[in-house]
Amino acid sequence: MNSHDRASGPLAPESDAAFPMMASRVDLLSQVLTLIKLRGELVFSAELTAPWALNFDAGSAYFHVMQDGAMRVSASDGRVIEAGPGDLLVLPQGRGHVIGTPDGKPVSARLVLFAQMKEESLTISLGGGGAATNLISGAFRFEGDNLPSMLAVLPSIIHISREALAEEAGWLDGLAHYLHAEARAPQSGAAIMISRLIDVLVIRAMRTWVHKAPPENKGWLGALADIRISRALKTIHDAPFERRSVAELADIAGMSRSSFAERFTSLIGAAPLHYQTRWRLLLANEMLKGGRTRVSDVARRVGYESDAAFSRAFKAQFGVSPVSVAHPEE
Question: pTM here?
Fold first, then answer.
C-alpha cells in the first residue's frame, strides 16, 4: 500500500459530524452545490423594445426568465441560443454574455442598471421602440475555494424551453411571480427573499436540465442522468475515503473496465481515479477551514499516510498548502 491508498479503518473520519453530507447521503447535485455555495444577489425586471442588446460583464452569474418576446443569448464560449416566450436561461459560469435582438448594439448592463434602478422599483427599460421583450432577470454567485474545479461542472448556458417547463406543473411561473413582485415593489426583507428565491430557481433549473437535456450536452452533470455512471459516482460520494480501483467502479456500474473508463472520462472530464482523488481533496479543503482540525488528522481522514504526500496533492489541486487554508493568518 502506498501513501495514497489508505482509505478506511481507524484513521477514517471519526464521525459523520466531520462532514455532515456523509451522514445524510444526499444526492450528488446537492453535494456539488454545497461546496460552491450559491448566493443570490439581485433581481430586476426589464422592458425592452427592438433593437436592443445588453452586455453583462464577467463576474456574477445570471438567469433570465422570458415573459414574452424573443432574444438571442450569446455566451463567452461562442454558444448562441435563440429564446422565446416562457423560456428560462441560466448562465452559471459568470464569464460574461450578451442578450438582445440580432440587430441590437450592445450597451453595458451594469451601466443601465446603475442609471435606472431605484430602491422603490428594480426595473429597467431599453430599446428602439420596436417589438417588445419583457424579462425577469437576476444575478447570483457561486462562492468558495472549490470554484475552479466545480464550475467546470456547469455548461455556459442552461436553456430550458417553455415546452420542457410545461411538463413540470408551473414551478417557474410561481417563482417568477414572486421575483417580479420583488422587482416591482421591494418590501421589508427583500434582500433575503430575493436571495432565497434565486437559490430555488437556479437549483430547480439545474435539476430540470439534467433530466431534459441530451446526455451529450450535459458535460459533467450528464453523469447524474447516466444510470450506470451515476452508480459509480454515488459510490465515490457516499464513501469518499474508501479508495476503489477502476475495475471495482466498473463492476458497480455494470460495465467493462475499458467502456466504463471511457464513458466516465467523457462525461466527467476526468479519469475515475483522478476524480476520486479530486473529490477527497475538496472534502479535505472543507475540513481544514477554520483551523479546528490539524493538517495531519485531515491527511489521515482522507486516506493519506504521509503528510508530505497529502500536502503535495493538496497544493497541486488548489495551488496553496493545506497549512495556509487551516491557518490563513500565519
Answer: 0.71
CA distance 292 to 287: 8
In the predicted structure, residue 129 carries a pLDDT above the cut 80: yes
Q: Please compute Rg for the chain using Cα positions.
A: 22
Q: 5 falls in which pLDDT band (50, 70, 90)?
A: very low
Beta bridge pairs of residue 61: 140
Strand residues in the chain grouped as ranges (E):
38-49, 53-56, 61-68, 71-75, 80-83, 88-91, 97-100, 107-108, 123-127, 132-142, 158-160
Q: Which strand (E) or helix (H) includes residue 165?
A: helix 162-166
Q: Single out the residue of 66, 86, 63, 85 nearest to residue 199, CA to CA.
A: 63
Sorted by where each starts, the structural domains of the chain and their CATH numbers stand as 9-33+226-326 (1.10.10.60), 37-214 (2.60.120.280)
What tens digit of pLDDT does each residue of 236-289 get? 888 888 889 999 999 999 999 999 999 998 888 789 999 889 888 888 888 888
What 3-state class would DSSP assign to 121?
strand
Buried b (16+ CB within 10 A) or exposed e, 266-295: ebbebebbebbbbbbbbbbbbbbeeeeeeb
Percent of the chain with pLDDT over 90: 37
